[in-house]
Fold this protein.
Amino acid sequence: MPRRARLTHLDARNRPAMVDIGDKAVTAREAVAEARVTLPAEVARALAASGHRTRKGPVFDTAIIAAVQAVKRTHELIPFCHPLPIEHCDVDIGTPRRGLVIVRCTVRTTHRTGVEMEALTGATVAALVVYDMCKGLSHDIRIGPVRLVAKRGGKRDFKRR
């Protein structure tokens, strides 16, 4: 008989609660998340022509710095996230092709809980920074989807096909 899916952040009385990770094993954990930013053609051309700079500064470099800051502060933004020692954070922002910018955020730790939320937060904040720094050119920039690409460690590994 298959086990029914159950929301993890509810206590026995169905009230919101932080998951108790005290009995979990300390293992290596990694998560990779991706955010897509779709730029109108004129924005993509202007960004390429400027070397990915706007009057606000270097777009992708600023987005990478913001993503790392966001990863380290995820527990301050998401109510039930545990503060984690982040051992590695890598943010890669692909040069736009046909107006599509792909942000990939990889986060690693050795702990009792995973870093999916940290990777998703980092990718999302990087996408928001790209939007913010380019919005003077157009408000038709779109963010999404944002999704988990892979995770390793914990109960089960996951890799999107």
Notes: The chain has a mean pLDDT of 92. DSSP finds four helices and seven strands in the chain.
